[in-house]
Amino acid sequence: VVALSLKNNTPIANAKVSLFSRKKQLLSTAETDAQGIAKLPNTLLKDKEDSPQMILVEKGADKSFCNLNSNRIYRPEADCNAQEYPEAKLNAAVYPERGICAPGESMNFSIVVRNADDLKLPTPQPVEIVISDSQYNEVFSTIRQISGDEIVSLAFPTAGDCFTGSYQITVRQPKAKKDGDEVIYGRNNFLVTNYTPDTFKIN
Predict the structure, then answer these.
(1) Angle made by CA atoms 128, 129, 131, in degrees to the nearest 5
(2) What per-residue string of b and e applies to 149-186 under the rule 16 or more CB within 10 Å gives b?
(3) pLDDT for the residue 160
(4) Taking the C-alpha atoms of 122, 182, 174 and 141 in order, what is their torsion angle to the nearest 10 degrees?
């Protein structure tokens, strides 16, 4: 489990992480480390009709939860859109700091890469991160070396006159393009558009 701040996209240390079953039974707990990572111990269920259902993260008065059946936390803009690609040896979960930004703003991402077969840490190797705009043009590309138990952080500055619409960020094997084929580790979408942030009026 990876806990990140929605305010500045930094890891949250010393947060309590709890795993609950479908029947609301506490299965296991753990605490996040300095990188915001908590490793929950594997717990065997005595009730064969029960199953893991929800992860709850708590730090002070702040709480967030993730429904394991939908891969979505209570704030939809923080959905990592984790998917499995059968042809890939790695899985990448891509977490945008929010689901929308305006032209000229920067979008920050956190990326967690694991082995596809056992979800363990992969051997040190490069991955390519590509961002395509709403017209399917690749507007950003970088190669990052993944190693250890780290979270890959990425900042993508949008231009003030960029195309608006749905953008896509893809994590893939470097130089994987061959006859139009790609080895994709993970991807997610975000929206670039002019918007008015939520405001509160206090009398």
Answers:
(1) 140
(2) eebbebebebeeebeeeebbbbbbbeeeeeeeebbbbb
(3) 93
(4) -120
Give pTM, 2 decimals.
0.61
Note the maximum CA span of the chain.
62
Q: Give the chain's mean pLDDT.
A: 81
* Separation of alpha carbons 175 and 115, rounded Å: 19
Closest of 184, 179, 173 to residue 85, by C-alpha: 184
| d(C-alpha 51, C-alpha 48), whole Å | 8
As a whole number, mean pLDDT of residues 13-37 equals: 88
